[in-house]
Amino acid sequence: MVKKLVALTLIFAALVCSLTSCAVDLEDKGPVIRLYLTTEPANLDPAVMIYDKNTIKYTGVMFEGLTKINNNRIEKGIASSWRTDYDQEKGEFKLEITLETSKWNDGRTLSADQFSWAWKRILSPETDSPAAALLFDIKNAKAAKAGDVSIDSVGIAAVSQTILEIEFEKPIDVELFLEAIASPALYPVRDDVAGVEAKVDTWARTGTDDMLSDGGFALKGRENGGLYRLEMSSYYRGLNTQIDGFMKFVKPFRLLTDYSVSLDDQLALFDAGEIYYVGELSKENYANREKDLKTQDLLSSYTYFFDCSNPVLSNASVRKALSTALDRTQIASIIGRGTKAAKGFVTYGVYGSSLGRSFRDEAGDVYGTTADVSAAKSLLASAGVSGGSFSLTYRTDRDYDLEVAQYAKSVWEGLGFKVTLVGLDRSEYETALYAGDWDVIALDYQGLTTSAYSYLAPFATRYSGSVVSVADDSIGYTPHVTNFANDQYDALVDSILEKTNRADRAKILVELEKLFADQAPACALCFYTDYYLVSNEMKNLKSNQFGYRDFSEVLLNNYQKINEVYYSVVESIAESSNAAAAVA
User: Considering the entire predicted model, what is its pTM?
Assistant: First the structure.
């Protein structure tokens, strides 16, 4: 009798909920939120976002991977479950991942095959992506990247529309792999776009057409220097707006960033209550608003790459001298915005021997944060080098790159070198970077995962992810873009994959970072801090470990009235455009 009463009570509660406060409003699309997400991105291809710290702030809200890293733990993304299978007799260790039901923003079903294609694309010899090393635990992945075996032999297979099966070279700590595939670089992409020759170089760069993505928000309008419109994907997680309404999985309907408005004017709009979030500030405004900002460590550093094939820079002692002579505290002051002097190549926010334990704390300091010119001169003397000429390439679209470059030039010329500064706009810069048309180049180095492995492994010759020639007489690999090659370094990276648990790998990574600092194919100068202003009118905003915002649960106070004003303006503009077209 008691069970029947409980059952009736639950049924009654459900009926009341459906008829009153829990009823779904099928007409309410959710808030339209004006904001300034970040600086305008150049390339939204998840696989190549490593050299610009801000790109991830777009791709992070547009795409969704199989897993996520939050609050020092691995969470489900688009994966609903996973399980392992180990056949000891056959020596086969497999991971089976089941996907949630979801769709791309054009309505096509998201399938396991699209993850398989995206990962094999990264592992293809024809693709340039340092994310390849994240997948080298998978059977034949490393050999396929070198062109030694067919990409079809890689242990990644879609055994059904919703089940992805991964076979490994040997049993591993599955947590390590689940951490790796949380990487934004391993988000799915579609073969009917990224795999079409005519679109390969443009699908993620330009145009106002809808860009295909699988996350809660889709980029529905993109005008260079104008308005970017992110809109709730009406197909996300199998959403049916006729039954579920618009706000089941994603609360905001639109996120609008207007790039025709200057950075200072964005802040003025925020103060006036006309936009509700600002994700980028000038150095001065950061200092003035620091107490109001939300901040966290960002898995990204301001870094110099050295061309190790350049005769002047080919000696490791010379590169280390150039690194040692720079005052990282002074450079952090030039950049501002909460930037911290780098104490190693691996940033804060990276895990060491366990999830939640800091690699930076375990590794200690491998860089001095102030200049040591005497040590730099001693290194140059030991190398028998007293000078030489090289260029330093920097971006012209930001307000600090030139000043940092001028400072480095003055320091290095004080050591006897002649340094030519080369400033390039964003498009020219990206072309030069990938073509290797530089001697020293400044860039944002984005950590691809919360593991130090993703920072350090790509500098090993067989882990670079660079394009590989498959000609019969080719060497089977292409060095990192820095042209760094060191047998001891390569052997250490190889030994990491031989270890099957996190703690053992972390010990080697600590040793590897010290060797990296000595060999100095690159040097981190500063660790970036992620920061943003958010209005008190905005509720439920969350942050991701990688430094992008989760807007899915965000609501604005009184958003219905705000929406009325927005839609009336949109309607007025449409009517004016139609009238002008009719006259024409």
Answer: 0.91
